[in-house]
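Trying the structure run again after the queue cleared.
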Amino acid sequence: MKKIVIAAVILIVAAGAWYFQAKSSKPAGAKRGGPVPVVVAPVVRDTFATTVQAVGTARANESVDITAKVTETVDSLNFEDGQQVQTGDLLVQLSSDRQRAELEIARVNLAEQEREYKRLSGLVQQRAIPQSQLDTQLSRLESARAQLAAAQTSVADRRILAPFDGVLGLRRVSPGSLVSPGTVLVTLDDTDPIKLDFTVSEVFFPALMPGLEIVARSAAYRDAPVAGQVVSVDSRVDPVTRAIAVRAHLPNPEGRLRPG
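Done. Tokens:
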């Protein structure tokens, strides 16, 4: 009987200890009607960026097919494949012996007509000849000037110059080749900066504007992203794809990015 009483007392003491321990471990806010614990933080302004990915196509800033204006044979090629050229550099010289001879004749004729006009002008002032004779000579003088200009243009048409700074492609003719208007002699591309054209869904149209920064990665240089800026946004949305075309400029001083 004593053992049973002792066991009961032990159970009562253990239950009381458990009750007081549980009661003391409850948070102050758990009491009915007490304060609720909260986490306080200052209000700050932050920017959330929306990242849009697109596939783009690189294009030259300026691109042209160098062609001949006249039908003539190639006298000389003054460039190498892939050469960097400056505006006005002579690229191709076409045969122009006959045109140069005609130019020299036009210069001589102009000089002669100018001398004759000066001589007749003096005679008119002396009233030795009528004014009509001087007017006729003036017409001859103007004709000689026009002939000289035409001869100069004919010679210039056989000198093919670089229209802007850029990089030449592969030459497509050889010295002695007969070329005609429209025959592509070589290509010329200005690739710094290079244009990047891509399309974006119309839902992002409100955020598209010149000056928007982009980051481009080339398949050839995946670990070397290039930062650029949007320069223009197309004025129309494609009615089929519901996308709008965007153009950006990327710096390309080393020429690592190529059109296409």
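Confidence is low (pLDDT under 50) at residues 1-15. Worth checking whether this holds up in the mutant runs.
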